Amino acid sequence: xxLSRRMQRLASLVTEGNRLADVGTDHGYIPIAxxxxxxxxxxxxxxxxxxxxxxxxxxxxxxxxxTYIELRLSxxxxxxxxxxxxxxxxxxxxxxxxxxxxxxxxxxxxxxxxLVLQPQSDIYRVRKWLSEHGYLIEAxxxxxxxxxxxxxxxxxxxxxxxxxxxxxxxGKTDVQRxxxxxxxxxxxxxxxxxxxxxxxxxxxxxxxxxxREIAADMERIVYCCQKIGMTVSQ
Length: 234
Prior knowledge:
Elements: H1 5-12, E1 20-23, H2 29-36, E2 43-47, H3 50-62, E3 69-73, E4 87-93, H4 95-104, E5 114-119, H5 123-132, E6 135-145, E7 148-157, H6 165-170, H7 179-202, H8 209-227
Parallel strand pairs: 1-2, 1-4, 2-3, 4-5
Antiparallel strand pairs: 5-7, 6-7
């Protein structure tokens, strides 16, 4: 079993020795890999659908790890008990769904040491939620896979400073593990938004709400690049 680059990077954010709760486990690959590497002692692999759990259970059985990985049918964190996990991993979901899962599972979050999150959308909303609910973003990472970029983060209990707009959208550069991949993503995002702006300008719509939003985001990207000592063509 070979983890994808995205899953390898997510697994690397899990603190060694922690018990893991993998929400939306799908095939169960990350818990299996971490147990095999002896990085974690135990995992609860959960999914809201029975189908993925059937596949995960088969993979766990084939790996001979049924003693170390418990599988549960669960909507988010509903079936996780307080004190059962040190790390919660939620990846490959929309940001608003991740926020809902965290909101609805707050009864068990007090005993959880860290959150490893990889939102597919609304990333700035996830970072904002973390900063407003007693979490400090301790690490940021990003990986490119099959032409797509996947930002991810690790958050722990603590007082976060007020995050700048560029940090909400593109992450805290001072804790970014993959600065050059971040830069590639920023360039790609800037180029994509530049093309949208050019289209708006051709239609004399650059001063609409949409135009102002695009311009503001392009400024955030330029500022973020400057913070990591890089430049972007205007």
